[in-house]
Amino acid sequence: MSHLEQWIRDNKMHESDCSAALDPIIQASQLLQARKTESDVDSIVEMCSKLTTSQVRAVGCAGRVFSSAPPPPPKVEGSFSARK
Fold first, then answer.
1. CB-based contacts of 83, cutoff 8 Å, min separation 6
2. Residue 6 has pLDDT above 70, yes or no
3. Buried b vs exposed e over 35-48: b needs ≥16 C-beta within 10 Å?
4. How confident is the prediction for the chain on average, in pLDDT?
5. Residues 6 or more apart from 77 whose CB is under 8 A from it?
6. pLDDT score at 82
7. Domain limits of the chain?
8. pTM of the entire predicted model
9. Tens-digit pLDDT profile for residues 9-22
10. What is the C-alpha to C-alpha distance for residues 75 and 71, in angstroms, rounded to an integer?
């Protein structure tokens, strides 16, 4: 992703639709790397402004599949839905 973002900047395309089209992908990749605990819900909501609630849940679930961390308690998803 970072190489693609840099290429867009180098070719002065950062103000085009091309850059905007990447925003959800960038946010999804950031979400995959982010901590996902009850205390992180507000920052996740802020970070994922270009994603729908369903997309955030799907990416969050995918992240758990590849992570060795235990799944978050059910109240985390409920907290997120209430704030989104």
1. 41, 42, 45
2. yes
3. ebeeebbeebbebb
4. 77
5. 57, 60
6. 62
7. 2-83
8. 0.62
9. 888 887 777 778 88
10. 11
Phi, psi for residue 71 in degrees, rounded to 5: -65, 150
* Cβ-based burial of 50 (10 A; exposed 0-12, middle 13-18, buried ≥19): middle
Under 8 Å between Cβ of 76 and 37: yes
Q: SS3 letters for the chain?
A: CHHHHHHHHHCCCCCCHHHHHHHHHHHHHHHHHCCCCHHHHHHHHHHCCCCCHHHHHHHHHHHHHHCCCCCCCHHHHHHHHHHC
pLDDT of residue 50: 92
What would the pLDDT profile of 32-55 be if each residue is shown by its tens digit?
A: 888 877 788 888 888 899 998 888
Q: How far apart are CA 48 and CA 66, in angstroms?
A: 20
